[in-house]
Amino acid sequence: MNFMLNQKSFWSACLLFTLFATVANAQDGWNWPEDKATAQEKVVLYTDMKKAKNYEAALPPLNWLFENAPNLNSSIYINGADIYEELALKTKEPQKKQEYIDKTLSMYDQRIEHFGGEVNVLNRKASTAMKLMYSNKSNYDQLYDIYKETLDVSGDKFAYYNVTPYMNIAKVQYERGKFEAEDVIGIYDQLSEINQNNIDSGSKYASKYADQQEKIDAIFTSTVTVSCDYIQDNMVPKLEANPDDLDLAKKIIALSLSSSCTDMPFFTQAAEATFNKEPNAGLAKTIASRKMQSDDMQGAKEWFNKALELSTDDAQKADIYMDMAAIDSKAGNKSSARNHALKAASLSSEVAEKAYNMVGNMYFTSYEQCKGGEDMVKDRAVFLAAYDMYRKAGNSSGMAQSKAQFPSKEEVFTYNYKVGDSISVGCWIGESAQIQTRD
Description:
With 439 residues, the chain is mainly alpha-helical. 73% of the residues lie in helices and 2% in strands.
């Protein structure tokens, strides 16, 4: 009997000690109700049950706090969400699971009601909702509403860990017939803009937003495919009516890319409309390339020049110069083509081989154009110049073909030259080369 009394006294003391510890450790922000003692006891009871993973037993004291001390402390809603989430994950009974899910999500709403912090709490609510509801596609209408509200409230503070889940929601809704292609594009554009803004601003999560962008790119391109006629008939007239609609122009670009419609005039039209609002080198280069493909070489040159003006990246500039060299070469403007190719080679070692080969090819094929017919050695100097360019490109085949066209020793002697002499290469080339022979 004494033992039982002593044991009871022991546990009572433990409870009192815990209560005192709770009070002692209470920080600012704890708003105790008039019945403070009972509230303290309920806090001890539900937290002990939570630690013991006896989640059902944690509910009565927790619910007492919700009813009698709703603004006690944000921790009751944080812990409440954890408790209901665990119960939702464990139960196999569908109706009960849904009740627990609803209760879990209500914890976040009540936390916002009493303690604010809407952006942070909504992002956590969205993430939890996805965790609990993703496996049942009938839940995706509700998931979409939750994520849309979260993004609308958060703006660029939309959490990186919610980016890919939201894109997945858009994918599922599209597959369920709930969304049109434009709805998916709209969400993709919103998320892409949030990612880019966080990257550009140097957010501490910039690398995570960059990772998310790669993921949503993959989801988007594997989800939305519509006919080019759909874009032409349903979207282009709207852009023509309002050329300043940047969002629409971007949607047309995105949909054109995913649906292989980039050879259509409306792709260039949308790209130009976007450039007018948000000029950048990459977009100008894309428009120039489309002009090239449609044989509008003058338009292509104008857009490549715009790209050069805006570009700050040497590798990108080198690519642009090579495209401009190709335009000039095709038009027979070999001198200008060479200048562009050599500029490209000076900017990027990665394109240097291609650039020197291009110049070597132009030299090699200029024999008929440049020969005078009076001095065989001077006429064949174009092959000496071509050889030098192929050598810079590391093109042994081109070097061999050029050497086969060098003057012979006899021709060098006949025309009063010496091997090793410098000879002027006339015509459009206007350079000098060192005399060598093919034999």
